[in-house]
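Good morning,

Both structures are done.
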Amino acid sequence: MSTRVRASFEGRRVLTLEARRSPELALMVVNYGGEPIVAPALRERPLDLHTEAVAFIEGLQRDEFDMVVLMTGIGTRALVTVAEHLFAREAFVESLRRTRVVARGPKPMAALRELGLSAWAVAPSPNTWREVMMAIDMRSAEVTLEGMRVGVQEYGTPNAELNGVLEARGAVVTSVPIYKWTLPDDVEPLRASIRAIVGDEVDVLLLTAGVQIVHLLRVATSMGVEDEVRRHLRRLVIASIGPIASEELRRQGLPIDLEPSHPKMGFLVKEVAEQCGSMLLAKQRVQ
């Protein structure tokens, strides 16, 4: 007879870098017996000048794109907003309808449904750039990427891996930035969290986007303590919400102690609460 593991942080200090849903995430930590340390690490900022987006929308109107890859729901809706200032909304919708649209998972799909559109291909979970390519490859009998003109809506930063694979297959890729991730206006909570990491006052780090760790380390560098932060991070339990965030951790040379069974915040918090005690104990043994 198996015994069920009780999910509890048991008073451990849990650092969250989430911005938009930080109150919700902090409440989850509290509900599982943790002490949340909230330090939003990013802000989604619409670009002041949508030069590339405008050029893309005008090109789409002229049928200059054979495929459009929509990476996020918020970015898709932002494109619609820009388009509405140039043409009638219906004209933009019709230009998308004439194009093979690839959606990176459920969020851009929801944005497409709001427009009365469906996707030509949909990337399955966990919705990384690899699944985007898988979805395209599954339709390879219909099209070849050689010479295909592909517009890729960016999500905060360019996706170099996706663009590189598309170009290696012979596609002509146009990146379409619509918003970008920046540091929050107030970085003092991030600075305080860095001081807490260096002071061994954090037990768990919850990462819900890869750019969060980039910004944390950027602020640590500005404080002259990046090496110390990296050293102390290896003592924590670092939990990544999914493969996209995990890729950034690998690029930074940092460990991934846990990825939840589903890339959702609820699963992330519950599964870390269940396992963080044993994971911290194992880390202490090897130090």
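Second structure follows.
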Amino acid sequence: MTVERLLRIGLAVQLLGGALIALWLLPDGASWLAIPIALLVPLVGTGIVLAIEIAIGAAIDPRRPSLPLPQLIAVWWEETLISTRMFALAQLFAARFPEPALARDAARPAVLLVHGYMCNRAVWRRFLDSGELHDCNVATVNLEPIFGPIDRYADVVHDAIERLRAATGTRQVVLVAHSMGGLALRVYLRKYGAAAVSNAITLATPHAGTMMGSFGTGSNSQEMKPGSPFLQQLARDLAPEALQKFVCVGTRDDNLIVPRSSPFLPGARHVVFERVGHLALIEDPRAWDLLRNEIQESHARRVT
């Protein structure tokens, strides 16, 4: 099953369940309110889940210094809006958007975008539409099976890289990954080496795991628990020449990655953002600027 189909089923259950409960509770003559109430269920449900995640994160790994309450609410609200749009609209109905046409031109940077857990390529739509990568050859990928072991994604990433290289004539590509996608990059590098990669940029990737992995479904979620055998072996297998290519980006207000030091690989370059949540980081203009600059600088080093 694809994420697209799974989320459509989940949305249908939420809307139908919300409508039925509203009809049961509403007084006579107000049944028409069941529809707007049902439509609010995904937003309200997402907001509640994110508030719980933030509370768990604050209890396990308190932010120092703590964020003022108005700023914390702003982070929660932005993450709620973006998550609702991603999980109730974009990934369900816009996952098959056309990628920018590839030019057979090795002088253009080639970039592969890799999504995270329970997501698909639609999470990159706004970044691509922003024009930040208009002078790049860009491809996306869907990590499947959606609940399979992360090791299975090495071949998915490899196939996407080789298709991108063949279509553009470039020798190396820049890998950009969000969340679990960064672990998919690492299993690719372990299996295939770093010869085809000029740079690897990870956004909010749980390199050292996240406590939230305990609440997820599937082998991949369990492998993201801190101290899992998968993560321990992956840490031992990271070659020094591959580590030098990593730029690790994290946010001090991540609602999903706990502990908040987890996105940063020892020995890699680290970039820290504030006042932005886990999924919202993909759409943060500061992250877009960083990605654009890193991609251009990596390409400039490669061609000189």
